[in-house]
Amino acid sequence: MPTPEARLERLGITLGEPNAAVANYVPYVISGNQLFISGQISMDANGLVKGRLGENMDLEAGQAAARLCGINLITQMKAALQSLSRVERIVKLGGFVNASPDFVDIPQVINGCSDIMVEAFGEKGRHARSAVACPVLPLGVAVEVDAIIEFE
User: Which of 7, 114, 128, 143 is deepest in the core (most CB within 10 A)?
Assistant: First the structure.
């Protein structure tokens, strides 16, 4: 069975440096065999992906932003655990979408993050999840996702 790193490589995804915290918190905390990752925002090497779904972003753009959040979560996992093969289960994702009041496809936006977890970790990537709309997110980003991971 291919490693998560090999799966990401096949997808053309290269993990960079993990994002630094933007306020008074740490990017992750390990407690026992669980890894709690602070919310990762829609950001890549080109900068922040800002916008509001249903106002100036469509569903496809929102899913791409959520996918970036997933890649950033995986980058934090790698920083915390050194090897993604230590991941036993993606336990839960919490997704937040910057959305106009009439935008209702919040779960479909967060699928952008959920999908990358399954692509990278297979069955171990299937998780519980919440997905909620927010009137605004930090720094004006489109999406933020946090995670709870079980590891060996």
Answer: 143
For 68-102, write each residue's pLDDT tens digit. 999 999 999 999 999 999 999 999 999 999 999 99
Total domains present in the chain: 1
Tokens of 26: 């740490």
pTM exceeds 0.85 for this model: yes
The CATH number given to whatever domain includes residue 69 is 3.30.1330.40
- Residue 77 exposure: Cα atoms within 13 Å on the Cβ side: 31
Quote the pLDDT of residue 116.
98
Q: Greatest CA span in the chain, whole angstroms?
A: 44
Helices (H), 11-152: 59-81, 106-121
3-state helix vs strand vs coil in the chain, percent to 5: 35, 30, 30
> Can you give the residue range of the structural domain that contains 122?
4-12+28-151
| Contact of 61 with 142, CB cutoff 8 Å | yes
